[in-house]
Design brief:
- It contains 20 helices and nine strands.
- The strands form three sheets. The chain has a four-stranded mixed β-sheet. Strands 5-9-6 form a three-stranded antiparallel β-sheet, sandwiched between helices. It has a two-stranded antiparallel ribbon with strand order 1-2.
- It has two domains: 252 residues, Orthogonal Bundle (Hypothetical protein af1432), CATH 1.10.3210; 91 residues, Up-down Bundle (Growth Hormone, Chain: A).
- It is α+β, with helices and mostly antiparallel strands.
- The chain is 50% helix and 10% strand.
- The protein starts with 5 loop residues before the first strand and ends in a 7-residue tail after the last strand.
Length: 410
Amino acid sequence: MNKRKIFNDPVHGFITIPHELIFDIIEHPYFQRLRRIKQLGLSDYVYPGAIHTRFHHALGAFHLMRKALAILKIKGHKISEEEELSACIAVLLHDIGHGPFSHTLESSLIAGVHHEDLSKIYMQKLNQHFKGQLSMALDIFNGKYKKKFLHQLVSSQLDVDRLDYLTRDSFFTGVNEGAISYERIIEMMNVHKDELVVEQKGIYSIESFIIARRLMYWQVYLHKTVLCIEQMMVKAIERAKYLIGKGYNLEASPALSWFLQHKVTLKDFEKNEKALYHYSELDDVDIFSAFKFWKHGEDKVLSTLCEAILDRKLFKIEISNTAFSFNRIKQLNKMAMKKFKLTEEEISFLVFSDSTSNYAYNPSENRINILTNHGEIIDIAQASDQLNISVLSVPVTKYFVFYPKTLDKE
């Protein structure tokens, strides 16, 4: 069987699979599940074209990793075939632990378990399945391999993951402000004292990259309507878990039912094969299928949320640069209790507040280093002469309150 396949990607063109192990990993059910998890969660409620999946993104990041490693080898850095294969596997599997709708349900369906931790666990399982052939990839993913720059290509403030998702998400949403010169950035990459750096002539492309990232976060990833629909989904799942805890019988797939009935921790995934099995069966389809059942259920709170999500009857959103007052939230709760004839506890699922923060560039993390023409290493925040990156490196926080639009008519 010919395992050296070619994928025709709408963003990068032809993506070649150069090794049988890569093909076998892609064919594994753990990886195929990513076809059923949308990259941008519920962003298609705002940008209809944003229906690309984690499968697409993983292949794109793998493709850019191959390009980056080829450039570094041309520039004289020794990278063995095994290191190249392992770095490609590490980035190919970096998102394999994502749950339904990507980040949306990460804090509610499986509270306190980060998708990166789950990616590590599934990579370990795949390593067992492939008889240790992923050991170096795991070390690179975990930052334990001797060549630090390989991990930085997988996970840093300028990794191939970000280069692909900004390019891909801009393409599928149609938000041109997110477009970046990813090919030029890769061409300008280099390694200095085992650190991934960008040559000085690439500095303007990095400035554009930082600006694009900021624009994409507030225009797409943290768009107010996206946040609203995501919070509605979170509340629906929380309500379903609450009802099941009270003895209600809610129809759902076996995988979703298992997680609604169990409080799962990271240790459960490490020790309990059932947790791993059910999670590997869980995707976007399970959630929407359940909502279609719950929409017609007896619980008014859950049915209201599910109908609103399925039919896009979104809640009202108020935004502020400061936290909403206790009196404002109390007023909305009182109005909702009267309108829907529900208790204060029930209304907490229909009236809720939240906040979100974002860095365009976080200087406390792995920095983006510029290699000057004189061989010096300078942080992009100091090297930039066009941007005030000290401003872009300060987190921006916004506060939200969500409630049914019918309250506006009261």
